[in-house]
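hey so u asked for the seq, here:
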Amino acid sequence: MFSKSNPSQNEEMAIPSSADNRSTFSVIGSDVTVSGDIDASVDLHIDGRVEGDIHRTTYRALEARARKLAAAFEAAGVKKGDRVGTLAWNGYRHMEAYYAVGGMGAVVHTINPRLHPDQIAWIINHAEDRHMVFDVTFLPIIQAVAPKCPNVEQWIALIDADRQPEADVPGLTNYETFLASGRDDYVWPEMDENSAVALCYTSGTTGNPKGALYGHRSTVLHAYAAALPDAMGASARDTILPVVPMFHVNAWGIPYVAPMVGAKLVFPGGQLDGKSVHDLFEQEGVTYSAGVPTVWLGLLQYMKENGLKFSTLSRTVIGGSACPPAMIKTFRDYGVDVIHAWGMTELSPLGTLSRLQGKHLDLPEDAQMKLYEKQGRVVYGIDMKIVDDEGKALPWDGTTYGNLLVRGPWVIREYFKGEGGDPLAYDAEGKGWFPTGDVATIDGDGFMQITDRSKDVIKSGGEWISSIDLENLAIAHPDVANAAVIGVAHPKWDERPLLIAVRRPGSEVTREQLIAHYEGRIAKWWTPDDVQFVDELPLGATGKVLKTKLREQFKDYKLPTA
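ran it, structure tokens below
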């Protein structure tokens, strides 16, 4: 395993692909554009003005500004191994910070602004961030956390000098003023490829998050593998819009993949509503995108209500949580291929993607859909297996459930600062495997399908029921906007499934209708014992449904069958 945790402050760090480090992140001389920064997409009313309309630049210009930004950080005292935090949307300045910080040998630490301010402050302090760059939309968060983060020397707002907000934040400055303090003749240093380049914290729902520290080598290998035709399949002919945020596991590697292949990047900023995303797709000729299911729900609903289509979008990666089959079918009806993916923060994050093999191309559409619904085959470099609770390997027959384990060159071997002990499980040969916490099946062709998180699987009468399967069927109902299934205590069966559903606007679908919706589609004993309707489901910082909150909300709920 190549990713390193907690490198020494004296350890050399570098972008490791060639003697000319610049080629790792820019296509020198390319006229590929990076467009649509946060300030263009979000209504930033500062002193009554909105900064810009849309920003266009090239990889050549990005490299020059990143070089100057690295010099500015060096002048400010940032050394190899120091962490620099970011609290920002997807935008060109955020992209510059990625490469300036990593290229100089420091560590870019992306922070999820959707976390609670107390948790953000804890993460900043735990990472020992010395400088923070942030989008001004998050100024209220900065004002809340700054007093709790005394070690942060500068808070750098990603804005022009004449639009710097007024705020009582010690060390507050703006990006363009800070950038101007750098020099143009900065030389990228050469460093050990195994040293750290990026730090992301897990989005765990219990306890404090844990840090996953990625090395230059592991990050480059991950980008190479992600760009393969049967993975993300990115090329210089693509226009890529990452809806997945750069603070969510480095936007699944896209900020590294796109420059590697020379693809045009379109950054949406913080406007991720259906209209804004669709307008940007059409305006910029986007061919490729990536995001979590909750974002696509809003986009598809907007398109349906307004009778819209896609002109150029041909494929999208969907991950973060299981993609409902109904969503895959809807995208395919619009002429868009869905690449169902699975990964984790601890995997940098890609583990598997679902792409058909040659022998599957002549299968009927229903059979192909069954494969698209799976999370797919491993990206080259990743090994996986399923085991029982005693660690014994289970067969790849597509029906046997087991605990999913992985290993590979971009799978972490320990958490940042070595906290939480050794996270690996060791087999009889002494090889370390990372226990994902997912329950899965793997078929004879290597297609993996997540059936549940080990903590979410419903154990009824000694048998397992997949909450994901029940949720997918519920979301396929035309009157259901979203759904979740949790296990509720039962005196005879230990647990039974409870369906928690959100009706579509104007719908009056009933409990009985949803229960009947399952008839003939699943084993009868899998059918939820009851349905509860809510206005919305609690979502976590990465858009996943917080089942911990649902279990707390319904902990005293008594099923009618109990």
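The domain at 458-553 is CATH 3.30.300.30 (GMP Synthetase; Chain A, domain 3). The longest helix spans residues 59-75.
lmk if thats what u needed
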